[in-house]
Amino acid sequence: MLQRVLGFVWQRKWLIGAGAIVILGFGLAPNLAKKEKPIRTEPPLKRNLTKFIEVPGFVDAETKVNLRFVAGGKVVYVGAQEGDFVKKWQTIAKIDQRDLQARLEKNLNLYMNERWDWEQTLDDTKDRAIPKAEQRLVENDQRILTNTVLDVKLADVAISNTVMSAPFAGVLVSAPISVSGVVLTSADSFQLIDPNTLVFKAEVDEADIGKVRTGMTAKIRFDAYPDQEIQTIIKKIALVSSVGSSGTVFIVSLPIPNPDLSVYRLGMNGDVEIELATAENVLSIPLAATKENGGVWTVEIAKNQAETPPGRSLVGFFSQWFKPAVKKQTETVIIEPGLQTDDFVEVVKGLTETDQVVVPE
What we know:
alpha+beta, 3 domains, 22 strands
């Protein structure tokens, strides 16, 4: 009988082996199904954190002026070209004075006529009482004389306005003409700047202006020189808003060290990183690992769970060769955050350097 059973088994050994494998697979399936995908963790580390905002801006000068002729006219003299350095009170340009000089001479003649008439009136009325009607005529002559004096003064002012002088020493950065003989209008202007007052004017959004203070350090990067950084500080914050590319902005002025117009030209664009706060050698974790709800900050930390030993069954025996990884569980921990940047957050309380913080993939 035993021989018949052994013969039967031997003849069907492949079929019986396949069945055993199937049964073993069903036995291992629950354990294998329980194998979880590994989670990414990292411990809190000590870092230097810096919080900053980055905003666009442009080069400008704090001391600058646009010079125009009040009435315009034909230019008869050009004393400086675009790009020239001019001294204070140096003549930049003159327009034709001949018409105004003629007007001044005419007004002077009228003044002299009225003056002589007025002196004659004084002689005629001296040492005698005059009636009211004559008194009114005398007062009228006096007003006419006063008006002629004013006409002379106005003509003299008009002549002085035909000469354009520099109100301060600086560089003439733009000029509507380069030669004489051209007629200018009152809208044509010469722009003069003091190159020692070059600044970078940043456009800070009104949502961030409350975080900015004078004296804060900053780094400027120009579009023309992307590999260079200029260290500077905030010197002035505008009291009145402006309209920028992002909406309502406030202009923040930052001096440019060692200003050079041949390098930093007016209107040159760039970006500035304004340092809002910094913390050195503080315990920190990735910001992505945190959750915030109603002002409460939490993180998940990993905890190891002991592995259940396999049983004495055949399935248990074979499962030793297919051990799943040690299962990790997580625990929610409340933390007290400190300085927060775009990538990291300082942990003031709640974690130690031995904890393993779960970081989402």
